[in-house]
Amino acid sequence: MKRFVAIAAALGLGLAGGLAAGAAKAAEKLKAAWVYVGPVGDFGYSYQHDLGRKAVEKALGDKVQTTYVENVQEGPDAERAIERLARDGNKIIFTTSFGFMDPTIKVAKKYPNIYFEHATGFKREKNVATFSARFYEGRYVIGQIAGKMSKTNTVGYIVSFPIPEVVSGINAFMLGAQSVNPNIKVKIVWVNSWYDPGKEADAAKVLVSQGADILVQHTDSTAPLQVAQEKGILGFGQSSDMAKFAPKAQITAITDDWDPYYISRVKAVLDGTWKSTDTWDGMKEGMVVLPPIQNVPADVKALAEGTMAKITAGTLKPFAGPIFKQDGSQVIPAGKELDDPAILSMNWYVKGIDDKLPQ
Amino acid sequence: MLEATILTIITAATPLLLAAIGELVTERSGVLNLGVEGMMVMGAVAGFGVALMTGSALLGVVAAALAGMALALLFAVLTQTLVTNQVATGLALTLFGIGLSGLAGERFVGQPGVRLQKLDIPGLTDLPYVGKILFGQDILVYFSVVLVLVVGHVLFRTRIGLVLRAVGDNHGSAHALGYRVIAVRYGAILFGGAASGLGGGYLSLAYTPQWVENMTAGRGWIALALVVFASWLPWRAMVGAYLFATVTILGFAAQGMGLGIPAQFLSSLPYLVTILALVIISKNRLVMRANTPACLGQSFVPDR
């Protein structure tokens, strides 16, 4: 009898222990982490991702604990940073730059129980999802505005690296500009950095001295727009609304709103419904947002807003045929449009661009 | 177009030149401070912050120099008084500076800054072609050129310069002769910090008047390399800084004109050309040996 009591007690204890552990687990916060290529204070791309992280904290409150690592170099450093976050017990890790693609996949294979989300890439695994925004939709719109607004018919375009996201942006811009102004020229300068305010400003000044009267950037700092403001010309912001830096120069900006996506993905982990998916949302879903258009005449504003409405409704596709490459060969005939894989792997320029694409 | 290009080159060269001249003096005293990037970025955030709060870009410039000096003082206490390893301490100083500036500058992000005014002398600044280049710069550009002349003069034509170089070349002998090695090095480190801070302040007050984290983007390292390739001679550092800026800007210009030269090649060109040019002008081994501070990076502990 005594023995039976002892066993029952032991069982009871064990059971209670198990229950206690369960309770502790429920109260434990889900850890989510973000990896940024630039500083959160860049007021551009990484800043915008960090707004998304803060939105997750706000929406899910006690249930999550978020961290981030900023200024992570694309390459071996990224692998180390991601792996450390994995070892620190994060359940979901967002890696937010194209160059983090291979490091993310590598670490994901080592940690099959952790979910990874890679931005702007194309490699997926069972535990790696990808997400991106259709930035090019916004670039088509600003292309139209630039085509209407340029007096010198010359646009200066400052870019970072020749990856598909950037190249499709240039092409969409050019197609938009050509749709309203067949004589438009685009001068392209690669600064080989996502983020170097000094270099971006230098490139901007050089382009202005070569006759550009509209500046477009696919780099992350506000420097080119500041140059536009100083020189009395127009430009477009990137990633964030940069109107404060260039109130007279910024027409609009291509901003990314990651908040809804991040909240839904972290929620999915909490609910146990996370799956590897491939998300590519645009204006329709509210992932690409253009702040109110200013510094242009009413008719140009109306044109741009009309185009945005058509893109949102799905009746206008920026990459609808006919599209020709620089050498004149046809990529897609009239009546058809480029499919997503073709846009995601774009490594050619459309006809009319004067630059040689770095390979 | 030529005028605009030259103006852009001057802006690009000035922060490199300021930081390089400061580090050159530090290294001439035998101290290797790898914290240039950290001191620059602290100068950038302090300059921006003070200018924003007081509305005066000039006060910002002063603050930038003081911030660089403050970080340099930390380096001096660690390496000279506490005799820590200079390489490790310098690297740590850079990391510390980048981190601290990010923290201090958090509330400055996204705020338009105060721009350092350019000189405007009626009559002179409006001169065709040369007016804006010679008479239309901000004070830091003129200061950087004057600094090269003054440092060159002091190093090679004055007693202070002689003592500084003696300390850098043979601290044992300098000490035996009764010179206060540690005090001289403190001075040289602080000077280097102030100049690096100014270089950073130039970025956040004149180059791109804004504060964003890490905005120096590696310029401190380029300045460090310039000092070595300039074989520790001020005028060569100036040649190096301007050459680097010129090739960078011409690379952008070539891209804008659509010359079809690969962009990656153009962006590596400033490094190649600068190294090549400075190696060629430094090929005289005697000059090189005479100008390399023999005690560079070595700690000094007076034995009595």
TrEMBL record, chain A:
<feature type="domain" description="ABC transporter substrate-binding protein PnrA-like">
    <location>
        <begin position="30"/>
        <end position="295"/>
    </location>
</feature>
<dbReference type="InterPro" id="IPR028082">
    <property type="entry name" value="Peripla_BP_I"/>
</dbReference>
<dbReference type="Pfam" id="PF02608">
    <property type="entry name" value="Bmp"/>
</dbReference>
<protein>
    <recommendedName>
        <fullName>ABC transporter substrate-binding protein PnrA-like domain-containing protein</fullName>
    </recommendedName>
</protein>
<dbReference type="InterPro" id="IPR052910">
    <property type="entry name" value="ABC-Purine-Binding"/>
</dbReference>
<dbReference type="GO" id="GO:0005886">
    <property type="term" value="C:plasma membrane"/>
</dbReference>
<keyword id="KW-0732">Signal</keyword>
<dbReference type="InterPro" id="IPR003760">
    <property type="entry name" value="PnrA-like"/>
</dbReference>
<feature type="signal peptide">
    <location>
        <begin position="1"/>
        <end position="26"/>
    </location>
</feature>
UniProtKB/TrEMBL annotation, chain B:
<keyword id="KW-1133">Transmembrane helix</keyword>
<keyword id="KW-1003">Cell membrane</keyword>
<feature type="transmembrane region" description="Helical">
    <location>
        <begin position="265"/>
        <end position="281"/>
    </location>
</feature>
<feature type="transmembrane region" description="Helical">
    <location>
        <begin position="177"/>
        <end position="198"/>
    </location>
</feature>
<feature type="transmembrane region" description="Helical">
    <location>
        <begin position="87"/>
        <end position="105"/>
    </location>
</feature>
<keyword id="KW-0812">Transmembrane</keyword>
<protein>
    <submittedName>
        <fullName>ABC transporter permease</fullName>
    </submittedName>
</protein>
<dbReference type="InterPro" id="IPR001851">
    <property type="entry name" value="ABC_transp_permease"/>
</dbReference>
<feature type="transmembrane region" description="Helical">
    <location>
        <begin position="218"/>
        <end position="235"/>
    </location>
</feature>
<keyword id="KW-0472">Membrane</keyword>
<dbReference type="GO" id="GO:0022857">
    <property type="term" value="F:transmembrane transporter activity"/>
</dbReference>
<feature type="transmembrane region" description="Helical">
    <location>
        <begin position="242"/>
        <end position="259"/>
    </location>
</feature>
<dbReference type="Pfam" id="PF02653">
    <property type="entry name" value="BPD_transp_2"/>
</dbReference>
<dbReference type="GO" id="GO:0005886">
    <property type="term" value="C:plasma membrane"/>
</dbReference>
<feature type="transmembrane region" description="Helical">
    <location>
        <begin position="139"/>
        <end position="156"/>
    </location>
</feature>
<feature type="transmembrane region" description="Helical">
    <location>
        <begin position="43"/>
        <end position="75"/>
    </location>
</feature>
